[in-house]
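Notes on consecutive records. When two proteins share a document, each keeps its own sequence and its own token line. Never mix them. Below: protein one.
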Amino acid sequence: MIKCQLRSLIAAKEMRENRRISYREIEAETSISSSTLSRLGKNKMRQFNDKLLSALCHYFNCQVGDILQYQPGEYRDSENASSLE
């Protein structure tokens, strides 16, 4: 399963900058809607496009691998699992 590390990235940036960071602030800087950021923070996103990932990488000054991490476990879409083989 792919896990989004948005909450961890926000927490680390908050500690570095010694201030609170809201989804609204990230939205203003990245043009990613607060609702999308909320879904990312709750690991409810199923697709990640290049514009979204590029904006987050720029904002957090990180790499895609810092945002998304693979964690072995249950595959969410078992219907499509066989098409990947």
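Protein two starts on the next line and is unrelated to protein one.
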Amino acid sequence: MTETNRIEYKAQLTKDLDLEKEVVAFLNFHEGGLVYIGVNKTGKTVGVADPDGDCLKLKTVLKTTSPLLLWACLMLFQNVIIKLLTYD
């Protein structure tokens, strides 16, 4: 599967990843979107080394970036799904 306007692939969480931008972009679509972390740009699963740590990073980013972004995610989370893929 390739990236579309509703599917975004990220190989890993990094400091350079502008996750907030991706979430806001998907919140603008009525249908929402999916962010797959642990998948490279070609759609191949590369996995994440520390799923628990990455989940904590996601929560921290979404909580500390902006109260408005956090509210939007809580109210509209069914429209934005972030999946962490591991090698399991």
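For the record: Residues 7-84 form one domain.
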